[in-house]
Amino acid sequence: MKQFDVDGLVAFLNQIGLDVTPGQSAKLKKYETMLLDYSGRVNLISSADRDWIVYRHFLESFLYVWHIQRTGRAFRIMDLGSGGGFPGIILALFVDDYPLVMVESVRKKTLFLKHVVRELGLNAVVEHNRIESLYTVYEGRMDVVSARALAALPLLTRYAFPFLKPLGTLHTVKGANYFDEGVPAHCKIVEIDVPRVWSDVGDYLLHRKYLIVEEKA
Q: Please, what are the domains in the chain?
């Protein structure tokens, strides 16, 4: 286990070709500071994670950025259950072709997310609502729905699929035994091992799978 700060993370990302500008690096540092400042008032991260924000949360969130940027396409993205902003804030900072929509049902967390969006000047919208209440607004409009630690796969696909365009995909990171949650028959799953270069800096990623999930025609 190797703890590192934003500068160490940025050095790693630049090394693997996910270029981070000085402005983006400064915003990552500011975001980390805001997380620490607000966590005493809002349950954004556990007390045990306060010293590990970059290692445990930023690093894994960048897996989403890496996979989405590699396609070379512009996407309309919705992040479900954004919480403290993982991966939604990170995605909004690095994949900003369209306004990213973050959905969070806890009011205090949405107020924090809106504060971060405003302070960092992100191209993002924060929706304080239950996921099911937003189908009439966003149904069939998204290319990608992202989620992290929100729900088991059967429920997660039920949440996500109504928002997706035809051929749209759900992106999520799960433990290696995710299939124990149950894999819905109507889902086509592309399972991607986390590359060794990532797990070398974050050993917990050895036990993660990056899943791209599509609804079967």
A: 6-215 (3.40.50.150)
